[in-house]
Amino acid sequence: xxxxxxxxKPEGESRAYALVLSYLEQQIRKxxxxxxxxxxxxxxxxxxxxxxxxxxxxxxxxxxxxxxxxSAQGQGSFLVNQADxxxxxxxxxxxxxxxxxxxxxxxxxxxxxxxxxDRMVQQEEPExxxxxxxxxxxxxxxxxxxxxxxxERVFHWTLITGGRNxxxxxxxxxxxELDDAYRQETLARISEETRRRLLDAHxxxxxxxxxxxxxxxxxALEEHFQLICGT
Length: 231
Hints:
Elements: H1 11-30, H2 42-49, H3 53-66, E1 69-72, E2 76-79, H4 83-96, H5 102-121, H6 126-141, H7 145-162, H8 166-174, H9 176-189, H10 192-211, H11 214-229
Antiparallel strand pairs: 1-2
């Protein structure tokens, strides 16, 4: 029996994706296309790129899977930024394939939050700090359970957004589902002593931001991740 060759992606599909992507990039650079705009029709793309309808649709479908196109029935396709959706899928697959780990996940999160904290120390962000203080108060009022989980989520997301870095925000948003699962798992099994120390670490982060003390903030963040990584 003839051995079945492994399936590969048809060359035409790869070419269609590359041509559609290149065309859209050109339109963006020229200023003819921006986020929220409706894309040219399939017929227009077919004429511009010399591709058949199926090839154009395949190229658009791949870009939609990446999170850069949203197709609405009867309305057409629009340029969007939902890249976090694609990144989230990639990360989930890497975890399933044992190509990354819980420890690496937290290491990435710590790096992103440290960068955000460093930037917040260097600028005035009273509204952001106020939201973090409210989240901290909610954590203190709900030492365990879903209230604590929700308050921690708000605290750390507010820290990231306070750093004013869109790429960091996209990455953290992509990690949300997994982050929530790890947070729930961690808070469910830690001791009361660890809960207390975690709360102290969050208080120290807020205090460091009030005082514009980068080193105090770094130590508090490091303590936070050491505690959750050790569970």
